[in-house]
Amino acid sequence: MTNAQQVSIRPIALITGASSGFGLLTSIRLGQEGYRVIATMRDIGKKEGVLAKAAAFGVKEQIEIMKLDITDSGNIADVVETVIQRWGSIDVLVNNAGYAVMGVIEEVPMADWRAQLETNFFGMVAVTKAILPHMRARGTGKIINISSGAGMIGFSNTGPYSASKFAMEGFSEALRLELLPFSVPVVLVQPGTYDTGISAKHVYRTQPNSPYSKMIERFNQFNQKSERNAPNPMHVANTIVKICQSRNPKLRYICGSDAKMIFLMKKLLPWRAIEWILRRALH
Questions:
Q1: Total-model pTM
Q2: Inside any domain, residue 4
Q3: Which pLDDT belongs to residue 5?
């Protein structure tokens, strides 16, 4: 038995956007649960910080760092091929990489719209398609897509981000149905606001003397207050572990009280009532 075959006794999880936030914490938690984690990131310069965090949790030996730009098809193909050749399988894919463009729709340049969809949606599709034939042929595996509360309701100032997450939702529903005969469940995780520091990475677009200035200011105040009171993001990582360990995971897992409230609003209230609530809260 080769060394690679010995190591492949561990299930293999590939995680995108693993340099921080949910991706980093999920890498650590899956490492703790006995997975060999392929933690990928676009900026390989963040590698040492990730390994230091992994060492602090005692899982450094379970985590391998690889550079992956999910908008680069060649890079995707190389990473997937390398992982399968080295470890023999990819048992879990966590599509976590992404960012948020914030701003009212009129004022967000088209280049930002395209960049937002290129990363959050098309990049996620490309990584999934690269791994799909392997999981389908084996008749096993899990695909976990990290969506958002903004994938349930399109809020003002979140148009590009919401559009990318709505696209992910539709993609995931279709893919889940297509893969049911092959025993490869597709799962959506829908987090609300968590204390991940992600807001510092948002791209904010606004125009001087914007006619939407009052709306933008109110939204930003609401967002900042939510982030100050946000819960520990380890809850989301623990939910992903639960999905990985489940034989028959459901389609959606909603994380956080605010996301659960959004879900209930969308399910129970007519749109006019939702409009009234959101205008009072955000405008």
A1: 0.94
A2: no
A3: 43
| Residue 158: strand, helix, or coil | strand
- pLDDT confidence of residue 281: 87
Burial class (CB in 10 A: 0-12, 13-18, 19+), 111: exposed
CATH number, residue 133: 3.40.50.720
CA neighbor of 90 nearest in space, from 47, 41, 29, 133 = 133
The answer as to whether 240 is a domain residue is yes
Quote the strand ranges of the chain, DSSP E. 12-15, 36-41, 63-67, 92-95, 101-102, 142-146, 186-191, 203-204, 252-255
Residue linked to tokens 């405008």: 283
Which residue among the candidates 161, 194, 212, 253 is catalytic per the annotation?
161
Does any domain span residue 86?
yes
Q: Catalytic: 253? A: no
Return the pLDDT at 8: 55
Domain limits for position 147: 10-282
- Give me the residues of the chain with pLDDT under 70, please: 1-8
How many domains, in total, are found in the chain? 1
